[in-house]
Amino acid sequence: MYIFDVTNPITLLLLLAATVLLIFLGKEIKKPFAPAIALVFFLVLVIIHSVQLATIPETNYDEIRSTLLGCLSFDLVMIFITFFGYLWVDDIAAKFYKKKSIDNSLDWFWNKV
User: CA–CA separation, 89 vs 74, rounded Å?
Assistant: First the structure.
């Protein structure tokens, strides 16, 4: 079974750097589709890792299970980061294009901080 191992430190740093770059690219071009690409990517990774976790073969069960749980943990943290990045860029784009936003996506978050 092939596992896209995001617990490898080099892969982890590359994915983190790519995600941050996509968020700042979206900020610069004022389009929220750039962070949405990263968000969809990590959602697909969660689905892939969940399916792999559900269908682990009996050989090397403990090793594969711990790797997949680490991958799922990283995926969920990155979904959290990219979701807030998407909301941030969406708010910037709405203000720049003077579009009425349905809600102030981040106001509830920043008011409590």
Answer: 22
What are 93's two structure tokens? 């784009």
Whole-model pTM: value is 0.85
> Which region, left, alpha or beta, applies to residue 98 given φ > 0 means left and ψ of -120 to 50 means alpha?
left
**For residue range 13-61, what is the model confidence (pLDDT) as tens digits?**
999 999 999 999 999 999 999 999 999 999 999 999 999 999 998 888 8
In angstroms, rounded to a whole number, what is the distance separating the alpha carbons of residues 113 and 111? Answer: 6
Q: Residues near 97 by Cβ (< 8 Å), separated by ≥ 6?
A: 30
Both tokens assigned to 68: 């997949």
How far apart (Å, rounded) are the C-alpha atoms in residues 77 and 108?
20
